[in-house]
TrEMBL record:
Domain Protein kinase per the UniProt entry, residue ranges: 120-400
Binding residues for ATP: K155
Native source species: Sorghum bicolor
InterPro entries listed in its UniProt record: Kinase-like_dom_sf, Prot_kinase_dom, Protein_kinase_ATP_BS, Ser-Thr/Tyr_kinase_cat_dom, Ser/Thr_kinase_AS
Molecular function in Gene Ontology: ATP binding; protein serine/threonine kinase activity
Entry protein name: Protein kinase domain-containing protein
Pfam families per the UniProt record, alphabetical: PK_Tyr_Ser-Thr
SUPFAM superfamilies recorded: Protein kinase-like (PK-like)
Matches recorded under PANTHER family: OS01G0750732 PROTEIN (PTHR47989), SERINE_THREONINE-PROTEIN KINASE PBL7 ISOFORM X1-RELATED (PTHR47989:SF15)
Disordered, as annotated region: 52-88
Low complexity bias spans: 78-88
Membrane-crossing segments per the record: 16-39
Family affiliation: Belongs to the protein kinase superfamily.
Length: 420
């Protein structure tokens, strides 16, 4: 009996040992599964986080208002309830931008850029922007670049420089101008961009820099493709990042064209991070170029993505009419482009009257009426009646595709050629 009892105890011990071992293995399996779950969750979270701009933190008080640059409206401060303040706070928020990897933005020395641009000589100057002159340059590796020598002194100029570096370093879209590098050495602030061989849209719409100057060589198809690509740039800023980025100075001179007349949105010195709440706004000083500023922003300082939509509508009117946004040399009632064109944009019989004479014979009436209707929606006085940029893109895509298909089947259709 003793042997039987011992045998029973041994079996019991073995059984207990097996049970404990199985329990331990199960526990280890659970721990391993939980660790793997945490790893995957963290990886996915990082990936999702990398695709969006984070929420803005609370901002310090804005710096004293500076005098607005040439061709810009006088600014004013507005109440900031449920909104972000201007100036340093906006820059601080932009500094928190996090996306997956940067585009390899380089840091240049002043001497290196001085040599690349021929000493910033007038022969190398290709433009004069709101924040400084732009020069053509060649890097030691042979790459052609555009170098902006920023001339805004003081704290505000520094914030504008940092805003543009942050945004263009981290936001990625084929419809935004690419930033190659920057220089912040001593009192010098320089930005180095991809070189856009055909410069700004404005100079092609108005070759002699006047409303009654030379005739534009941009044909209908090229204008519509530029309109679509510029719309895609704003769509990315408004709807592909969170909180949205509001350009705040969208205009024809800030749409740059490469050698094949493909468009990129540029100049982010005045950009602001928008509200991450549906229907929300940020309150800020009114800055922007006359003729492009949305009426509600001009009156209240309340800035939303719909403010950019209005500015886009003005550019679309420029493409349609070949007229500058404000020209008080025009006959009475025609000085402000939006006021003159808006009543005719939705009238099929009157649309043809406002189209640029240089476009004669290049478009179908149906396409012209559709584009005019899009422009009319974008420049509505009430912001709520304006479309999202995604809707604008969706409306333009079939028009551009249809023309491309017609062009492929009819090689005699005219098109713009790059400038020498």
């Amino acid at each position: 009996m003793a042997d039987g009892g011992d045998e029973y105890k041994r079996e019991e011990s073995v059984t207990l040992l097996v049970i404990v071992s199985l329990a331990a293995l199960s526990l280890l399996s659970l721990i391993a599964a939980f660790a793997y779950y945490c790893y995957i969750t963290r990886k996915v979270s990082r990936r999702l986080h990398s695709l969006h701009l984070p929420k803005r933190s609370s901002s310090p008080p804005p710096p004293p208002a500076r005098a607005p640059p040439r061709q810009q409206q006088q600014g004013k401060d507005s109440p900031s309830s449920n909104s972000a303040s201007d100036g340093a706070g906006a820059t601080a928020a932009a500094m928190s931008v996090v996306v997956a990897g940067e585009r390899g933005v380089q840091v240049f020395g002043y001497r290196q850029l001085h040599a690349a641009t021929g000493g910033f000589g007038r022969a190398h100057m290709v433009g004069q922007g709101s924040f400084g002159a732009v020069y053509r340059g060649v890097l030691p590796d042979g790459r052609k670049v555009a170098v902006k020598l920023m001339d805004r002194p003081g704290k505000q100029g520094e914030e504008e420089f940092e805003m543009e570096v942050e945004l263009l370093s981290r936001l990625r879209s084929p419809y935004l101008l690419g930033l190659i590098g920057h220089c912040s050495e001593g009192g010098h602030r320089l930005l180095v961009y991809e070189f856009m061989a055909n410069g700004g849209l404005q100079e092609h719409l108005y070759p002699n820099r006047g409303s009654c100057g030379g005739i534009s060589k941009l044909d209908w198809d090229t204008r519509m493709r530029i309109a679509l690509e510029a719309a895609k740039g704003l769509e990315y800023l408004h709807e592909r990042v969170n909180p949205p980025v509001i350009h705040r100075d969208f205009k024809s001179s800030n749409i740059l064209l490469d050698k094949d007349f493909h468009a990129r949105v540029s100049d982010f010195g005045l950009a602001k991070l928008g509200s991450d709440r549906a229907g929300g706004h940020v309150s800020t000083r009114v800055l922007g170029t006359q003729g492009y500023v949305a009426p509600e922003y001009a009156l209240t300082g309340h800035l939303t993505t719909k403010s950019d939509v209005y500015s886009y509508g003005v550019v679309l009117l420029e493409l349609l009419t070949g007229r500058v946004p404000v020209d008080m040399k025009r006959p009475p009632g025609e000085g402000v482009l939006v006021n003159w064109a808006l009543p005719m944009l939705t009238d099929r019989e009157k649309v043809v009257r406002i189209l640029d004479p240089a476009l004669e014979g290049q478009y179908s009436l149906k396409d012209a009426v559709q584009v005019a209707a899009i422009a009319a929606m974008c420049v509505q006085p009430e912001a709520d009646y304006r479309p999202l940029m995604a809707d604008v893109v969706q409306s333009l895509v079939p028009l551009v595709k249809n023309r491309s298909n017609q062009k492929a089947s009819n090689p005699n259709v005219q098109s713009s050629k790059p400038l020498d």
